[in-house]
Amino acid sequence: QVQLAESGGGSVEVGGSLRLSCTGIGITYCWGWFRQAPGKEREAVALIDDKGTTTYSDNVKGRFSIFKETGEQRVSLQMNSLKVGDSGMYYCAAGFYYGGNCRYDYWGQGTQVTVSS
Description:
By secondary structure, the protein is mostly beta strands. Helix content is 0%, strand content 56%. Strands 2, 4, 5, 6, 9, 10 and 11 form a seven-stranded mixed beta sheet that branches. Strands 1-3-8-7 form a four-stranded antiparallel beta sheet, with no helix packed on it. A hairpin with a 4-residue loop joins strand 5 and strand 6 (54-56). The N and C termini lie far apart (40 Å).
């Protein structure tokens, strides 16, 4: 059973850190964190697969880290050196591979991140 639930969002000042967690990933093989700011399209922030291969968007490289906690049905996103532009609703997604690409079939409800200057 896959039922994603995000936690860990909140309000921080520029330069601060937050850790987002996504639980309930069940038996899935690829996971990602996506975000959507008001008036903007949803974008992929960080992705990870069952082999531990990670991918980051250019604007978070070096600041964010996605990891799957061994033995836990949880994928987390550590966010450091936060910027105002990181604000938005963050969604966890999970899925399976089809033709070599991950299809994110499951989505959480989202958790809000607000970064203020």
